[in-house]
Amino acid sequence: MSRAADRLRLLINHLDPSPASIRSEPTFAQTSTYSHPQRLRYTFETDLLTPEQRVFYEENGFLLIKNLVSEEDIDRFRKAFERICRQEVKVPGLVVMRDVAIAKSEFVPDQKAVSKLQDFQEDPELFRYCSLPQILKYVECFTGPNIMAMHTMLINKPPDAGKKTSRHPMHQDLHYFPFRPADRIVCSWTAMEKVTRQNGCLVVLPGTHQGTLQEHDYPEWEGGVNKMYHGVRGYDPQQPRVHLEMEKGDTVFFHPLLIHGSGMNQTQGFRKAISCHYASGDCYYIDVKGTTQENIEHEALDIAVRKYGVEGDVHFKIPV
Ligand SMILES: CC(C)CC(=O)SCCNC(=O)CCNC(=O)[C@H](O)C(C)(C)COP(=O)(O)OP(=O)(O)OC[C@H]1O[C@@H](n2cnc3c(N)ncnc32)[C@H](O)[C@@H]1OP(=O)(O)O
Ligand SMILES: Nc1ncnc2c1ncn2[C@@H]1O[C@H](COP(=O)(O)OP(=O)(O)OP(=O)(O)O)[C@@H](O)[C@H]1O
Ligand SMILES: O=C(O)CCC(=O)C(=O)O
Ligand SMILES: [Fe+2]
Ligand SMILES: [Mg+2]
């Protein structure tokens, strides 16, 4: 286990351990909305979620909590992001991604060139996001008490350059993750500013977390699509979808099988969000050979070979 995950474990151990508040197995709960006891499969009892919130997540696969991260913290994350864009700091392991529409243009050390940071766990200021106690208290409701940070991102969705490449196709995050069980994985995604349909807020298909992992591939989009932005194959645009418009600091927690994406950014601003995928310490790695995840494994390995010159004994495991 890496240092980042160790740090997070330590943090968790320092959280208020209200005795016996966490049960190791999902429980039955009687809720005001239901006259029959309902098997709660996706959430744990921790005294934090109301029965209505638990049932909402169970049925929809996401839960939006308003005003969870302070303006002050978000402004600090923004400053840390800007320092990285200006190349004032070098962060080990960090992946800096540019939108495919501008990837071939001249390099400018500015946020305009960066559409996404991945694996920022070695940047202490950005990693503070993953260890905010108020986030971890929610995460614990989905993963249980032993929490690992598995994957981190800061998404800086650029104004669309006219080819709709700022869209993120509808997908399930589990496609990218070679570990299980899915129900003990959760993403927290915090809006770093007001996000609307105009600037490309998250779009979710409620309830799809109850399905299975689907086949993913590049959507056939005329204007091109970003590297590794796979979408669910045969996406039906007629399905009921929900646009999650959010204020700065609002945070959505969602299941890794929930089908979601984001529309194009039709404004001139860079729409920012920060996120972390967490998993229970009891999660284990799987071999994706022979599964629908084989295509993403090949792409990830290709990039690793080109970037780091590694070959042979590399595996599709996210090196946090
Ligand atoms: C749950 C979660 C994981 C879900 C997701 O986030 S899905 C999306 C995840 N995306 C990724 O993981 C992509 C990670 N990105 C990367 O590793 C990098 O940005 C790379 C795509 C490999 C490019 O990095 P790097 O090689 O440093 O960039 P260069 O500027 O030297 O370009 C090399 C060649 O790649 C091209 N390129 C750069 N950025 C993109 C892009 N966004 N989409 C498609 N192609 C791209 C670039 O044009 C260049 O191509 P050639 O000139 O060699 O033909
Ligand atoms: N063929 C497709 N495969 C996968 N995902 C898709 C496909 N077409 C659109 N999407 C996704 O659907 C979501 C909705 O995006 P889209 O830009 O079409 O509309 P919107 O921004 O939600 O609303 P509108 O543009 O109508 O105001 C986005 O996540 C987009 O990437
Ligand atoms: O912020 C967004 O546009 C969504 C990104 C996303 O879903 C992802 O990278 O997995
Ligand atoms: Fe996603
Ligand atoms: Mg749109």
UniProtKB/TrEMBL annotation:
Its EC number is 1.14.11.18. Its cofactor is ATP; L-ascorbate; Fe cation. GO terms for biological process: fatty acid alpha-oxidation. InterPro entries: PhyH, Phytyl_CoA_dOase-like. Pathway: Lipid metabolism; fatty acid metabolism. It catalyses: 3-methylhexadecanoyl-CoA + 2-oxoglutarate + O2 = 2-hydroxy-3-methylhexadecanoyl-CoA + succinate + CO2; octanoyl-CoA + 2-oxoglutarate + O2 = 2-hydroxyoctanoyl-CoA + succinate + CO2; butanoyl-CoA + 2-oxoglutarate + O2 = 2-hydroxybutanoyl-CoA + succinate + CO2; tetradecanoyl-CoA + 2-oxoglutarate + O2 = 2-hydroxytetradecanoyl-CoA + succinate + CO2. Gene3D superfamilies: q2cbj1_9rhob like domain (2.60.120.620). GO terms for molecular function: L-ascorbic acid binding; metal ion binding; phytanoyl-CoA dioxygenase activity. GO terms for cellular component: peroxisome. Keywords: Dioxygenase, Iron, Metal-binding, Oxidoreductase, Vitamin C. The keyword Nucleotidyltransferase does not apply. Pfam families: PhyH. Transmembrane segments: none annotated. SUPFAM superfamilies: Clavaminate synthase-like (SSF51197). Belongs to the PhyH family. This is Phytanoyl-CoA dioxygenase, peroxisomal. It comes from Amphiprion ocellaris.
